[in-house]
Design a protein that fits this description.
Number of strands: 11
Helix content: 55-70%
Shape: elongated
Radius of gyration: 30 Å
Structural class: alpha+beta
Oligomer: single chain
Largest sheet: 5 strands, antiparallel
């Protein structure tokens, strides 16, 4: 592989303007396709295999004109202080609002609060339920605007009027925070590379790759039903890995120049060594993201594949556009002459003494390998302490109670909770299929009586049958809020106790609704976590055996990853579930952790963790097979790569932390979790525990059974062939000979 990438690097360097033109053309085509693409259509949130989805499908089949997953809105009216909602003037204002809502083109039904008995016990609040003929994703902007206009008009009566539900537009997030993340990344690059030109190159190439990826997602959004979160995730990962991959190649190019190579040779060798690690690091990320398909949630699969595509683009940009731009920049990419001379002197000195410690990375590695047991114990204990909160992890999907208090959704949610009870924000829909029952009405009546007696149930509505009389819908109001463990217990109790009664009568009972769907999704993700973990870690373990020709190093990498995930999940639980320091990042209502978070953490963090493992350990192995002892190789590897790995980690942390400013709870949680995980994995696991373990294992770190060695294909990522060529030319002994 090293030889092939060496040739690719030289080709891109020589034909630099052609390569740049090709990427500019791709960017222009992507932008044109995105601009001409139709508006994104409805996003399917189907959950195959869940009881909630089966109930939705049954409603669509048996209730003509009823859309089970149709959009809903709830308009809440609160009387002014000292007044009642039943006063004539206020009652008329509410009636006018209900009529205006019912006139909407996409509205299927609007309940009158006074006829539906949706008035609080103290008669100070009421709510109207709006049902639409289309799903929330299909709802037109005109319908959303009409709802806002009705709320604004009703507010003129002096009442407090708020609206919630799936019809509301999501928050746009804080692009300023994302810009700050990029600014921090630019500063880190400048401090690391010491040159504006060198610092700007990784940023430019990463932005090109991300722009093409996001444009492609936008162009395909309507066809593939991709939502806005897909492009946010692709942007987040594309920026992080794109900057890092370019940084490693630029850094290696500068190192090769410092050893006296011609720029074209330096570009080829940078790709043959650092470029090889970029390919394998990118491959681990792609495996992790594409592996999300095993969860069998279509939306999650699409997000993973789209993000994986953006990572592939980042790798291709690093392997072609980066060496082309290096060709345009030439030697101007290097730092000032003083640093250039120091780097060359260090390289020359290192050739004579592999154990020389010249920078902070080398000094840190020397410190760790002098006392590996103490470092290992302290590091593991610290990670275990951070992981403790993860033991109390509760999963759920965010409801409107997690929205900022400045939003009308959150205010409507709070009004409902205060005046009717928190369970009214998440009603459950029990669907009774009595097609095969001898007495359908009697069976439904019996199950309704059972539902009323279940602990945690606040109210049960009269059943509503379809025209055929073989299916009934029953609304169940729990006492607790939608995302609570108590409500989850109510759902399971309804399915168990109600299901037993319905089964005896020859029918079946299913529970659906948005709250039950969230519970089913969380359970499905939880069930898929271990198989997904086994698949991703297993494939990557085999890949790392191929890369490092070792059993111990891949095993150590996998165990370190598990520590990283457990510790970062503990931090997420402490902030988002327990509420520690939550006000600092805008978590207004701590509660269950987003159900997709653990599997996202496993997938994305594994890919990123293997990035640092490959980048760091490859350089150590390169020194080891070059003749250094096991301990000397650790110091040499750290001296050459620790500074760049540190910069890469800080850049990723800055990029991910920028998304913590988003108003979307899902994006905020992912941003915080990934930023925390990168910090823990890069600085605690890879930069601290890895050298300690390698020092303790010594030469056995690189042991591979002879039989396995014989059957494994040889993949040269350390540049063995290139070093052999150097030795033939007499360069290895005199690195500065060509300067």
């Amino acid at each position: 592989m090293a030889a092939t990438l060496y040739k690719l690097g030289r080709f891109a360097f020589r034909h630099r303007y052609l390569v740049v033109l090709l990427w500019i053309s791709l960017l222009a085509l992507g932008g044109l396709a995105a601009a001409q693409a139709p508006a994104s259509g409805p996003t399917s949130f189907a959950m195959p295999g869940t009881e909630s989805q089966r109930a939705y499908d049954l409603i669509d089949e048996r209730f003509e004109g009823q859309k089970a997953d149709g959009a809903t809105a709830r308009v809440v009216f609160k009387a002014p202080e000292g007044h009642r909602i039943t006063e004539q003037a206020l009652r008329e204002a509410i009636g006018t609002a209900v009529e205006a809502l019912a006139a909407g083109a996409e509205v299927a039904q609007v309940t009158d609060p006074f006829k539906a008995k949706a008035v609080s016990a103290d008669q100070t609040a009421a709510y109207a339920q709006v049902s639409y003929r289309v799903s929330a994703a299909e709802l037109s902007e005109a319908s959303r605007d009409e709802l806002g206009d009705v709320v604004a008009e009703a507010s003129r009566s002096g009442m407090t009027v708020e609206s919630g539900g799936a019809t509301q537009k999501g928050g746009k997030g804080s692009h300023a925070a994302e810009a700050i993340g990029l600014a921090v990344a630019a500063v880190v690059l400048l401090l690391t590379l010491g040159s504006l030109l060198a610092a700007g190159l990784p940023l430019v190439t990463a932005l090109v790759g991300v722009a093409i990826g996001v444009c492609s997602i936008t162009a395909l959004a309507s066809t593939l039903q991709l939502d806005s979160t897909t492009s946010v995730l692709a942007m987040m990962l594309g920026l992080a890995v794109g900057i890092d991959y370019a940084l490693f190649i630029v850094s290696r190019y500068r190192s090769e120049l410092a050893e006296g190579r011609r720029p074209e040779d330096a570009a080829g060798r940078a790709l043959g060594t650092a470029g090889s690690t970029v390919v394998f690091a990118g491959l681990t990320v792609v495996i992790a993201l594409a592996g999300l398909a095993v969860v069998n949630i279509p939306l999650l699969t699409k997000m993973g594949v789209a993000a994986a595509g953006t990572v592939v683009l980042a790798v291709l940009v690093a392997l072609t556009l980066v060496p082309a731009l290096l060709g345009i920049a030439g030697r101007r990419i290097t730092a000032p002459r003083v640093r250039h001379g120091a780097a060359r002197a260090e390289a020359v000195e290192d050739a004579g003494n592999a154990a020389v410690v010249r920078n902070m990375g080398g000094r840190w590695a020397a410190f760790v390998i002098r006392r590996p047991v103490a470092v290992l114990v302290v590091g593991v204990v610290a990670l275990c302490a951070l992981a403790v909160p993860a033991a109390s992890l509760q999963l759920g999907l965010p409801d409107e109670g997690s929205q900022p208090e400045s939003t009308t959704q959150r205010r409507a949610y709070d009004l409902i909770s205060e005046n009717f009870g928190p369970g009214f924000n998440g009603p459950l829909l029990a669907v009774a299929d009595v097609k095969d029952s001898d007495n359908p009405k009697q069976a439904v009546s019996e199950v309704s009586a059972v539902l009323k007696d279940i602990d945690g149930v606040s109210a049960v509505s009269p059943p509503r049958f379809n025209e055929a009389g073989d299916t009934a819908m029953i609304t169940v109001i729990p006492e607790s809020r939608p995302g609570s463990a108590e409500t989850e217990g109510v759902v399971h109790a309804i399915r168990d106790e109600g299901g037993d009664v319905m089964g005896e009568a020859g029918g079946r009972l299913m529970v659906s609704g948005s709250t039950a769907m969230n519970i089913d999704v969380s359970q499905k993700l939880d069930d898929a976590l271990l198989p997904y973990l086994a698949l991703v870690v297993g494939l990557a373990f085999l890949l790392l055996i191929l890369v490092f020709r070792s059993l111990a190093v891949p095993l150590k990498a996998a165990l370190g990853f598990l520590f990283s995930v457990a510790a970062s999940l503990g931090a997420v639980v402490a902030v988002f579930q327990w509420g520690w320091l939550s006000s600092l990042i805008g978590v207004t209502d701590p509660g269950p952790v987003m159900s997709m978070m653990p599997i996202f953490m496993v997938g994305i963090v594994f890919g990123l963790a293997m990035d640092y493992e490959v980048f760091l350990v490859t350089r150590i192995r390169e020194a080891y097979i070059g003749g250094h002892t096991a301990r000397e190789a650790i110091i040499t590897g750290f001296r050459h790569s620790a500074r760049v790995v540190t910069a890469a980690a800080l850049i990723m942390i800055a990029v991910f932390a920028g998304f913590v400013g988003s108003d979307e709870q899902m994006v905020k949680t992912i941003g915080f979790g990934l930023a925390t995980a990168v910090f823990i994995d890069a600085f605690v696991v890879r930069m601290t525990l890895v050298p300690a373990v390698l020092a303790l294992m010594g030469d056995t770190s690189w042991w591979l059974p002879l039989r396995l060695e014989a059957v494994l294909p040889r993949v040269d990522i350390e540049g063995d062939d290139l070093r052999a060529e150097d030795a033939h030319d007499g360069i290895a002994a005199h690195p500065g000979a060509h300067s």
